[in-house]
TrEMBL record:
InterPro entries: Extradiol_RC_dioxygenase (IPR052537), Glyas_Bleomycin-R_OHBP_Dase (IPR029068), Glyas_Fos-R_dOase_dom (IPR004360), VOC_core (IPR037523). GO terms for molecular function: dioxygenase activity. This is Ring-cleaving dioxygenase. Keywords: Dioxygenase, Oxidoreductase. It holds the Pfam family Glyoxalase. It comes from the Bacteria. Gene3D superfamilies: 2,3-Dihydroxybiphenyl 1,2-Dioxygenase, domain 1.
Length: 311
């Protein structure tokens, strides 16, 4: 049976202030801190993972909070919007919640027959809550203030802004197995039938669009999901056969990764489901303690002194 890309695995973005980032995503948006670790290439910087109870692929938004990094700018060659699926009828409750917490939001025009609410995080990262056309059956993570009748269920989609979409679309269809579902103006919706959720990618064609500047409030990379290492290696061969360069497999402790730059400029990752986030913490303690990659454990005391304390 042919291997399939199983939709989105995670999306990684950049923030400027670790505490503000933690407060917004766990307290305002109501996500679970699934893992608190550090950037593999810069252990003096946190790497936060937010998601549902188990950190299920397709729910995971991660951040590198680099202090004093400066403000980024969304533009072509990057993912410019991240959309979460929410329950039907919940948008009014979110508007009230956003108003109470001074979160900038705006009504959005119906897109492909679905209703959404756009908002930004403290760094200006562009996000959206969407009521999907088909009910999303995933079990959300609940908090004292964000109950299941409004809680996010995981990713609905992400939007890639591109000067031209053809080459990127070819990666999605010919390598990843997505298909073009619909078009509205300069927005093209691609979906995979391999999964019920987190399987939508929108390509927004902006021939005159300015290139984005990657810093706080912008996306870093988009990770696609495969079931295991064997599937991942098959996709590595497909990417190479498509004429693109791709890294060797990299161990990220909670999944294994391959990276390549798609022709439109967006950094893509192919990440495995295995071994998952409970490899070094029990489920009920996920995100509680600072977990370090094994190569940095000997430097724990110095790293903990450098990282800001998160309350």
């Amino acid at each position: 049976m042919e291997k399939q890309i199983l939709g989105l695995h995670h999306i990684t973005a950049i923030a400027a202030d670790a505490q503000k980032n933690y407060d917004f995503y766990t307290k305002v948006l109501g996500l679970r801190m699934v893992k608190k670790t550090v950037n593999f290439d810069d252990p003096g910087t946190y790497h936060f993972y937010y998601g549902n109870e188990h950190g299920t692929p397709g729910t995971i938004l991660t951040f590198f909070p680099w202090k004093n990094i400066g403000q980024g700018k969304s533009g072509t060659g990057m993912a410019t919007e991240i959309a979460y699926a929410v329950p039907s009828g919940s948008l009014d409750a979110w508007k009230e919640r956003f108003s109470r917490h001074n979160v900038a939001f705006s009504e959005t025009a119906p897109r492909f027959g679905e209703t959404g609410l756009s908002f930004t995080d403290p760094d200006g990262l562009q996000l959206q809550l969407v009521i999907p056309a088909a009910e999303d059956a995933r079990i959300p993570w609940e908090t004292a203030e964000v109950k299941a009748d409004m809680a996010t269920k995981g990713f609905h989609s992400t939007t890639l802004s591109l000067k031209q979409i053809d080459a990127t679309a070819k990666v999605l269809t010919d390598i990843f197995g997505y298909r073009l579902q619909s078009q509205e103006g300069n927005r093209y919706r691609f979906v995979t039938d391999a999964v019920a959720n987190a399987g939508t990618i929108d390509l927004l064609e902006l021939p005159d669009g300015a290139p984005g500047k990657q810093a706080a409030g912008t996306n870093h990379h988009v990770a696609f999901r495969v079931a295991n290492n064997a599937d991942q290696m098959e996709y590595r061969e497909k990417v190479l056969a498509g004429g693109l360069q791709i890294t060797p497999q990299i161990d990220r402790d909670y999944f294994y990764s391959l990276y390549f730059r798609e022709p439109g400029g967006v950094l893509f990752e192919i990440a495995t489901d295995n071994p998952g986030f409970t490899v070094d913490e029990p489920l009920d303690q996920l995100g509680t303690n600072l977990k370090l990659p094994k190569q940095y454990e000997q430097y724990r005391a110095a790293i903990e002194r450098e990282l800001p304390v998160i309350k």
